[in-house]
Amino acid sequence: MTAPIRYAEDYTPGQVFDVGSYAFTAEEIIAFSREWDPHPFHIDEDAAKQTMFGGLIASGWHTALVMMRMLHQGGFLSLETSIGSPGHEELKWLRPVRPGELLRGQVVVNHVKLSKSRPELGFVNCTATLTNPAGEVAYLLTSNAIIKTRGG
Amino acid sequence: MTAPIRYAEDYTPGQVFDVGSYAFTAEEIIAFSREWDPHPFHIDEDAAKQTMFGGLIASGWHTALVMMRMLHQGGFLSLETSIGSPGHEELKWLRPVRPGELLRGQVVVNHVKLSKSRPELGFVNCTATLTNPAGEVAYLLTSNAIIKTRGG
């Protein structure tokens, strides 16, 4: 897929991007969490059954990474213009994410601000979500993406 | 290291935990970012020199994972009592993180609330930081950790 290069001026409030879908396997949930976040309910199916979650769930950080990858691969961010982010206003893990659930990624542009002091940069405020098969938002991130301007 | 098991009642406002230190190598920054966050300034030393960062920097998500692992390994969280988190109030990448910089991890407890509706659970609000060799906070996370109570 060759996505168009998007500059800050190309994002407009209310714009919606569908950025793909993803389902975790139990194996990758366990492998990732053993390295970074070894809660029993992320790394051991039997132990997970004894917890309040009733079974294996993905680490929230793993979920966040899948969303990040979708922002790249789904054509929301362009490698030529994206400068990263200073952080996030909201990061919410609203529902547990279980193996095999197909998560659908979407991004909505909230507002766009071109920098006055640095005309080569703009700030694209957006909310990215992963929605589970029950139609519930499992993960929500509201963030400012720093994007190069066309005019700068 | 055998850390004590910490219950919600064991955390008190103002408590400070030193949770270890970590320095990224260029190789691991590149390998991680290729998989999850392939901005040129995370995956290519030469390309990174041409960007506003002037060299390779770690993906903010990679930094967040190192902090998460410190919360486990540094004895702030206990696997027996930690139930995860519903998300974060603040997540800030304040300074670029470069290969070889030794980051020092610290956690401060802001406040602790025992659940009224679910006496087996408490909410430990804390701010976790990674500080670079210049004494600047590079990463800051304010979060509610859900922790089992001793009394529940």
Task: Describe, in plain words, how this protein is organized in 3D.
- The first copy, chain A, is of the alpha+beta class.
- Chain A has one domain: Hotdog Thioesterase (Thiol Ester Dehydrase, Chain A, Roll), CATH 3.10.129.10.
- Chain A is built from 4 helices and 5 strands.
- Chain A has a 5-stranded antiparallel β-sheet, with helices on one face.
- In chain A, strand 4 (121-131) and strand 5 form a beta hairpin.
- Chain A is elongated and about 55 Å long.
- The mean pLDDT of chain A is 95.
- Chain A binds chain B through residues 35-41, 51-52, 60-61, 64-65, 68-69, 72, 79, 82-88, 90-94, 140, and chain B through 35-41, 51-52, 60-61, 64-65, 68-69, 72, 79, 82-88, 90-94, 140.
Write the layout of secondary structure elements.
The structure is a homodimer of 152-residue chains.
Chain A: E1 16-22, H1 26-36, H2 40-43, H3 45-49, H4 60-73, E2 87-93, E3 103-114, E4 121-131, E5 137-148
Antiparallel strand pairs in A: 1-3, 2-5, 3-4, 4-5
